[in-house]
Design brief:
Blueprint lengths: L5 H16 L4 E2 L3 E2 L9 E8 L2 E9 L1 H12 L8 H20 L7 E2 L3 E4 L14 E6 L5 E9 H5 L1
Antiparallel strand pairs: 1-7, 2-7, 3-4, 3-5, 3-6, 4-8, 7-8
Helix pairs in contact: 1-3, 2-3
Length: 157
Amino acid sequence: MRAEFINPFLAATNDVFRTMLSCELTRGALSLKRGSTPDYEVNGLIGLTGRCQGMIVVGLGRETAIEAAAIMLGERPVELNDDVLDAVGEITNMIAGGAKSKLEEYQLSVGLPTVICGKNHVISFPANSTPFVLPFDSRLGPLCIDVGISDVTQRSG
């Protein structure tokens, strides 16, 4: 994983939360992802293909996801429901799209988001990627972005 892959996702996450949710983020320390268990209960996944390939995961705690959905929907859902999962999928899509625009030289295509909700599940990144974790805190609650991308041009040599 190259460092220039991280900054576009960092910027896109800040942009999406600032513009769509009127929420400023405080970034925690960047680290390598350990294990396959997500840090939070609600996870939006989206695949990336092109001259690079990989996946990003937008992880939010239950209350963070509900609070974000409340802002997007104009009313607060009482529980995790389809509206909350749709909102997390849209946030994931916007972050991936924003990062893609900053990585044009890799001719990336962004897949459709999938949202997984629940505890004790496993998310596997492509075998040739070493995912980084970008943790954030906000007034909505904690979240993290896991980014695992590999440059396929480096492997084909």
